[in-house]
């Protein structure tokens, strides 16, 4: 793995205004991600994880501080930065292959190249044979695999994943975590994944970024120096997990904070809320 600073987030603060109150979603957050690294971000609900991801991907702006990707200031979305959300967001009227091909929209590739890339990525996520299926014919895990293929198909430099397995059952989740880790090892794409699941963060991350809420800050960055694929039942894994949990509990227990999360969320739908700054 090279040590090029790939994505740098420097002193980033992001505030929102809700009902004339200012919410500081992120305060003075700095993080430097190296090329090919897998960084996971955990934290209680409302601590700014998604805000950080959206800013990094260029889907949000209005922050103070600076975000650079390969040395260039991030000013908006780019084909170099892919994103996968918790819901796969597939178009129900398009087949799996056409949904994946959407990731190549505006990528300037020929029809033949598009076909080749879609086939390759169907294979990569284990959906060969489902190219012509429609989203309603897929299980939740399969749909999320299609979402991941769409995020990867144009070979982004960085793939941002916002709780990609959050809606899946425990068995499918563990399976897809394993698959994502092999895709990452094979494709060498920088990945930044947000999760509520400490096991997932330790299983996948080279480093686990622990965030604390109100205002959202980085509390600690925990390196995970364990060989891959990781053995979740090993004592070394358990030690890192315990460390991350302790770090989270330094602010509040995750369960406790999630129970009060409603208080930190805007009551109005987000598009109706003005951004500060
Ligand atoms: N568009 C927006 N308008 C107003 N407030 C927002 C907006 N986006 C985020 N916030 C607020 O910023 C804070 C951080 O939200 P964010 O969604 O980043 O947290 P999170 O850690 O990803 O939470 P969760 O784990 O529940 O998804 C919250 O208090 C939230 O209400």
Sheet with the most strands: spatial strand order: 6-7-8-3-9-10
Low-pLDDT runs: 251-277
What level of helicity do the residues show?
Answer: 25-40%
Describe the global form: globular
Radius of gyration: 19 Å
Mean pLDDT: 87
How does the helix and strand content classify structurally? alpha/beta
Bound molecules: adenosine-5'-triphosphate
Keywords: ATP-binding, Nucleotide-binding, Transport
Protein name: ABC transporter ATP-binding protein
Organism: Rhizobium oryzicola
GO molecular function, one term: ATP binding
Could you provide a short overview of the structure?
Keywords: ATP-binding, Nucleotide-binding, Transport. The chain is of the alpha/beta class and 277 residues long.
